[in-house]
Design goal:
Structural class of chain A: alpha+beta
Oligomer: homodimer
Low-confidence stretches of chain A: 291-312
Strand content of chain A: 25-35%
Number of strands of chain A: 42
Helix content of chain A: 10-25%
Distance between the termini of chain A: 84 Å
Largest interface: A-B, 65 and 65 residues
Strand order of the largest sheet of chain A: 25-24-23-22-21-31-29-26
Largest sheet of chain A: 8 strands, parallel
Number of helices of chain A: 12
């Protein structure tokens, strides 16, 4: 059994590893930059350009200090320093003795036996090195390319340059005695028909001969279904469980969880919650036959040569859960706080619940950020949300250098061993955009081969991808229109097995913007000030703002009348764009099997961003549209383009989308009509109707394309298309399209 | 020190694991099928359909038996059974005791201590199981998909159905004493500038305290450059060697070899020959910018959407040797015998020398066959030929099944540990055509992930590919013409980073065919008999014969007048086709970095095949053309098509190809002329000339396209184009094209 001793810490900084001039109160777990800002009475870093106030701390050393009296240690007891995570590189010193001479990496546990260096009164110091920066690298994410520190703090198109460090995870002293159960993990395999689970138990500890361990397994109802004993130096063998309740995502079934407890007679007990499920990535229907042939032509178009047998260079992007192909709908999760220790279980709970309410069944945890603490995965296990977990590599060419590989192996191993038992884990991924031409890694890159081999060794039952995207998978774009093509036109000719980072920028709500943009700048948005600091301008490719995209807004919706109108119009384009992305991806099923947007949340309040939820957890209007688009069953309309002219014909392709595991036996009568944006333009017009037949599980139905004239007289900048499903109003759909009432139709 | 005891073996078969009825003399190492055919006086299996005489043996058990008296064993000595390889699954029994209860896999060593079960007179039995066949699989290669046995014997388009087994590698008894040096391996890394090698030494053995090991390293001239001693239980540390002579392929430099010897004081000594080199696969020039963009259109053509930053989905296919990008020219090696034990060092030597004379610098050892014994790699080390080594998987969907993975891990580990020290090893590859749609493995397949992790663990300095082909690499085709397009037209619009299996069928020489086709069939080639048994008909896709392609021959060269003429015309098409494939691939440098044909040799004499060398080692006429095409420096002509009409204009694109590491400083004057195929048609005509400037190392020069009229009067089926280089006749080139003298040019 372990006795925990918490410590009172103070914090200071210095230019070298020498001791700091002054010490300040601080939090553990916490973040050095945040504590020092608090101690020095800095203003809110989220306002305007205040985040720059941290810049001076970048190359400092941070010193955490605590003192403690020597505790009573009975025979066989020892005192340990234990930390679940220190960001990023440190040394731990007790009474002048370096008990941890050097540790690099924020995701691996740090332990040190202090017994040898204790006095009556003891001083403990954790010295944190300056942030790692690749020598000679340009200021920005490239500085992160030689370390396993998440790169996002080095600056991103939606994240300020703000580097953090500190004792970010649970840290204390532990009195340990001989005779203990230290670790416990439960492993299983399911037979092909998934009605027998073969369970194996792994543990470590310090035992005496004759020690007995007892294992209990409780089913989701709390009933004990397995109770076994084994000698601590022995083995439970392989335990068979028949007809286990399978873990499903919330939209496909019940996320059934089992609880396993291993106890040492008269000693420690450790519990693990887990679920039985089989997750696979399989080839998408239709994709194996694609790809280059024995020869392809210079224009890259195989069709210009006779059809030889084709290679499957596309990768599997179709999730198969418990033998069922499911359509993955979700989003890209980024750290919801800039300071890692500030990411609480409450915040994760709130954000995961919003995701579930949005009909998402998967979260892609993006590789540029921290890997979340256990509470996040516990929530996803419980709520039935899959997690695509990336390692902390993004957009860089991480080197084959042995020193880097050593740290990466330690960090990745710690991550996989900590998380592999969670049924929510659906995919390990090496990281974000690593094989793109702006990063330049390849299948030969040792860091990616190493991550594959670590996942294979410790977690072979979970798929692994070297990076995102891989061939066949769409990644981006991030704008409402490209070279005059709006998002409808782009999606309608896009052809991917999955859309993994489809973005659509939109402004934050006015009440958020009021808090972050100083009053004197509020009314004149533009580059160069707080609006730019908060990513409304020059955040990405520089063209037309980004992320506020004022030019695009004016093109489609006319010149905004003030900031409120600008924000409203920006949010409308984001709502329309995301609705189209999610619905068109679903209409492309089964060839397409997944749609994730870029991005879900954000680490601080932005003025404009691709996010659906503004910091801390404020839904943007687009979220409601995405929820509609992701309903298990719903009516859906396909349009050729966004903007239309009064008097021209509008084509409405009718669909019923069905991702639910149940068949839908009734026929659905769908009535389509047009509504003017301007109530004064009258009632609207009927467009026609269609009655769909019964639906097979997880299968869409495609109906006719209705063609209806947009009344000449209509005014205003928008109009609406309504799909009514009288028998099931919950399946109805409503779309907003742009009206160019200043134009006449082309002859 | 080890004392070797050879055994006298006999061989028998049975229907079950029971003892056989009769025993026959046999060879060890050898092949059971071959020995039994010999014992039963079977006719030559290479003639006609005689290979079917082995069919009855497929599901038999084979029993190798030997008896031996108990040898004198002094104190501390023990007697061992040692085999370097038994094909494929076996059990070893001594005096009724199963000393090796079960072993699967032909590439891993088998050892058993017999000390415990010896009598005065001893009987040793090696029982070999029937060939593994996946239950329910169709007869053919698919039967091999659940085992690590090379699949080619199950039948291929160029290999008869003939399954082999037996004690195929060196096998004996060994008297071992305590106190021995058992294994020795040498590992090194080169610094970035490759002027310092950091050497580490690994060994195993049975030592006494105080034992000393001495290491000597001899440079390529035989001079000892390192001599060190270390305690057997200790370590040499990292030994630095400055300015090592690097190992190069024969066309890029000298294949310098070092010899390291580790000796146990007063005991064993083991030597290893190796070389210092750095081999990498890097992205081809121009390829990172290619590939699908954030969105691609339904026709697969990225150009129809605006250009977003592009992904590098193409894999690296450019070999970089010692920091220099080299153009890889070579061929696909298959086992030169059907019976694995019959592949001798002499045969390998002969074939590798022919490959070197053909200006090849790489051999791709195809995954369907055995992995060669050490002698093959020793020869490639010495001759300066790179080896792309595949594991024994081909064209199947090898399962994620734990039993298969266990055997694969054992076999692959044995292969990598045995071969990794050879400087010739340039690439580990999971196997052939595993991710194509007729096989269906993916990046998620555990066997491929396992092979990657094994290579990463034991041989990280050598690149690894999961299979061949990967995206961007051309693989096939195998015909002179596809849907009316001849090989010139196909190659001219082909666009690949590498051509790894470009085939071109051709008949074997008449003297070979006379030996394999019975006299009564010799004059009427066709399907259904010996010609088909020897792959001249219905061998591949069934269309138009294959591999004799009589229809194609008639189309381009007219109806053959008898067998000799048919063979000559077939060989002409193969010569023309291969010349074009190799030269056009070189003209596509630097985007293209490699060209390998399918295939080099063959395991028995075929009537027609893509091979360049007929069994046992008889060059086909095409080999001379390939040698010309692969000269380090040569003149080269690009043509639009193969067949032409008198009176029409012929375009001749002029090039100088240079793969040599040296600059070529002189200008080269190239004179082009046409020669009639029919001497009676006269002298020929001048086509023009071009003088190229100096050449940079490894860089081609492109000249003008000459256009010249083919004289109306010319007759016959062929004509020639000559590129004379008066100053360097060795760089001249000569091409044969088809003449349609029965036609007139289109207006």
């Amino acid at each position: 059994m372990k006795k925990r001793i918490n410590l009172e810490w103070t914090l200071g900084w210095s230019d070298s590893s020498e001791k700091p001039a002054d010490m300040y109160p601080c939090h553990v777990p916490g973040c050095a930059q945040q504590d020092i800002a608090e101690a020095l009475g800095y203003p809110d870093f989220k306002v305007g350009g205040n985040y720059r106030q941290f810049a001076w701390m970048e190359d400092k050393w941070f010193h955490y200090k605590a003192s403690f009296p020597k505790p009573e240690l009975r025979h066989g007891e020892s005192l340990w320093f234990v930390s679940e995570g220190i960001d990023y590189e440190c040394t731990v010193i007790v009474n002048g003795v370096p008990v941890v001479p050097h540790h690099e990496g924020m995701f691996s546990r740090i332990e040190a036996d202090l017994s040898g260096c204790l006095k009556k009164d003891n001083s403990l110091t954790v010295k944190i090195f300056p942030h790692p920066k690749r020598p000679g690298a340009a200021v920005g994410r490239e500085e992160a390319s030689a370390s396993a520190k998440p790169p996002v703090g080095y600056g991103w198109d939606w994240h300020p340059r703000l580097l953090t460090s500190g004792i970010w995870s649970d840290t204390c002293l532990e009195v340990r005695k001989r005779h203990s159960l230290d670790s416990f993990d439960i492993r299983y395999t399911l037979n092909e028909s998934m009605d027998v689970a073969s369970i194996n138990v792994e543990w470590t500890g310090d035992f005496r001969s004759g020690d007995t361990l007892s294992l209990t397994l409780e089913d989701p109802s709390g009933k004990t279904v397995i109770k076994k004993e084994a000698p601590a130096f022995g083995d439970f063998g392989t335990i068979e469980l028949h007809d286990p309740e399978l873990w499903w995502t919330h939209d496909q079934g019940k996320p059934s969880l089992y609880k396993a407890t291993l106890s040492l007679e008269g000693g420690d007990a450790i519990s693990k919650t887990f679920g039985f499920r089989r997750i696979r990535l399989v080839m998408n229907e239709g994709s194996p036959g694609e790809g280059p042939q024995f020869h392809i032509s210079e224009d890259g178009n195989p069709a210009s040569l006779p059809s030889f047998p084709k290679t499957c260079d596309k990768v599997p992007a179709q999730f198969e859960l418990n033998g069922r192909r499911i359509f993955a709908k979700g989003t890209s999760w980024v750290a919801p706080e800039i300071f890692p220790s500030a990411v609480t279980a409450q915040r994760c709970e709130e954000l995961v619940r919003i995701a579930k309410d949005t009909n998402f069944n998967i979260l892609r945890c993006w590789g540029g950020c921290i890997v979340n603490k256990d509470h996040f995965f516990d929530i996803c296990d419980r709520e039935g949300i899959l997690v695509w977990q990336e390692f902390p590599l993004s957009c860089n060419n991480y080197p084959d250098d042995p020193a880097y590989l050593k740290v990466l192996e330690q960090e990745a191993t710690a991550i996989v061993l900590r998380l592999r038992h969670h049924p929510c884990i659906a995919l390990w991924c090496g990281g974000n955009e690593l094989q793109n031409n702006w990063s330049g890694m390849t299948v030969q890159s040792l860091p990616l081969r190493l991550l594959d081999s670590i996942c294979l060794r410790y977690s072979p039952e979970i798929p692994f991808n070297m990076t995102s995207p891989l061939y066949g998978i769409g990644h981006g774009g991030y704008l409402f229109s490209y070279d005059g093509r709006d998002i409808f036109q782009v999606m309608n000719i896009s052809h991917f097995t999955a859309y993994c980072e489809a973005g659509m920028p939109g402004a934050s709500p006015m009440e958020v913007i009021r808090k972050i943009i100083p009053a004197d700048e509020l009314r004149n948005p533009g580059p160069g000030g707080a609006w730019e600091d908060h990513h409304a301008y020059k955040a990405w490719d520089g063209k037309d703002g980004t992320w506020l995209e004022t030019g695009t807004i004016e093109k489609y919706l006319g010149k905004p009348a003030g900031v409120e109108d600008l924000i409203e119009k920006s949010q409308l384009l984001q709502s329309v764009g995301y609705r189209e992305i999610y619905e068109e991806a679903r209409r492309q099923k089964p060839y397409c099997s997944m749609v994730l947007n870029w991005c879900y949340d954000e680490p601080w309040p932005s003025a404009a961003n691709n996010s659906l939820v503004v910091w801390p957890a404020v839904p943007k209007p687009a979220l409601k549209e995405v929820r509609e688009a992701c309903r298990p069953i719903c009516a859906s309309a396909r349009f050729d383009r966004f903007d239309h002219v009064p008097g021209e014909n509008l084509d409405i392709g009718l669909w019923v989308l069905n991702d639910s595991p149940e068949p839908f036996r009734e026929s659905l009568r769908i009535k389509a009509r047009l509504l003017p944006g301007n109530p004064s333009d009258g009632e609207g017009v009927e467009a026609g109707e269609w009655t769909s037949g019964p639906l097979k599980p997880g299968t869409n139905a495609q109906g006719p394309v209705l063609s209806v004239r947009i009344p000449e007289g209509w005014t205003g900048r928008i109009f609406r298309v309504i799909l009514d499903v009288p028998s099931h109003p919950g399946l109805s759909a409503s779309y907003t399209l742009a009206l160019r009432s200043d134009r006449t139709p082309e002859p």
